[in-house]
């Protein structure tokens, strides 16, 4: 038993990070694609965390009602879900508002040059 994983590092990496992380990324992506508020992602990731905790309990004899590992799993899945949400939102903002924003990285965008002057005069 470790601080981050209960039943083994393999279970943590495969079940939580790979399978749960993939589901969390797609959940964040779906929330961004449908323009849902960010709190909806927090709720969906919590439900996903409960499912992952149940799979850890049912398949690998983990503790079902462990608050410590529930919080750890939630934080890991939330970080991946937020990354998926932000990555998708960056693509949306720079594609749908191409005249206003430009992409500065996979998770960030900014106003195009000259656009700040137009809105400052307003």
UniProtKB/TrEMBL annotation:
Q: Which InterPro entries has this protein been placed in?
A: DUF6867
Q: Which residues form the DUF6867 domain?
A: 9-111
**Membrane-crossing residues?**
6-26, 38-60, 66-85
Superkingdom in the source lineage: Bacteria
Q: Which UniProt keywords apply?
A: Membrane, Transmembrane, Transmembrane helix
Q: What is this protein called?
A: DUF6867 domain-containing protein
């Amino acid at each position: 038993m470790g601080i981050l994983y209960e039943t083994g590092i393999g279970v943590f990496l495969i079940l939580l990070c790979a399978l749960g992380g993939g589901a969390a990324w797609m959940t964040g992506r779906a929330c961004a694609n449908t323009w849902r508020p960010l709190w909806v992602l927090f709720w969906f990731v919590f439900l996903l965390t409960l499912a992952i905790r149940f799979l850890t309990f049912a398949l690998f004899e983990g503790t079902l009602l462990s608050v410590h590992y529930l919080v750890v799993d939630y934080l890991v899945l939330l970080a991946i879900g937020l990354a998926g949400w932000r990555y998708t939102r960056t693509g949306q903002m720079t594609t749908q508002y191409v005249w206003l924003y430009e992409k500065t990285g996979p998770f960030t965008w900014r106003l195009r040059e000259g656009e700040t002057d137009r809105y400052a005069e307003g």
